[in-house]
Model the fold of this input.
Amino acid sequence: MAGPESVAPAGEPPAPLFGTRESAAGLPYATSAGAGGSYQPGLGPPPVDALAPPGRRLAARVIDTAIVGLVLSVLQTALWVVIFLYSPRLRQLATDYVNDPTGELQTQLQQAITPWAWLSAFVVLAVWFLYEVPLTAKRGQTLGKMALGIRVVGSSQTGRVGMGPATARWAILALPGLILGVFGLPIQAIDCGWMLTDKVGRRCLHDRPAKTYVIARTAVG
Done:
């Protein structure tokens, strides 16, 4: 015989398998222990106890940054070695500037190096994009998120993020730093720190346009 908690009061629909009747109607999930911390995609925000803790999100970001940084350090070193090997003019200007660092030589060196600097910046952009966006779009997890047991979910019934939202999410986080350099770091800090002010969905600013949440991997119903 079913327990009393499985029987809905007269005139009300049966309780859904995950969350509450409110969540099944498309309203926000309950945040009480009764939600069980489970999350069924497509039924509104996850319950608070299903959301990934901020500390785990930060640790996952640190791991991802370290992985991308390691790959880039190898690629960028190889790239600049090749550039100097196959650009005699750039190599000569660099040698002359080291021996005689005049303003004229500095200007010439900057002009000669600018196209290669743009190529270097494109490599940074491409590596970060290729690491983060496809993984987030297809499975909701970068290597850092896999290690910390958290996952990005979208608003669809499957919970899959998709390439469009994953790209928007990445661009909002990445571009301030890539465009402004160190001056973009405060913007990124505000972006990531915003989840501490969001009591309902614990979302960073880059989660909002993409309509994504970050949950504990075991919280998927």
Summary: Residues 1-8, 12-36 have pLDDT under 50 and may be disordered.
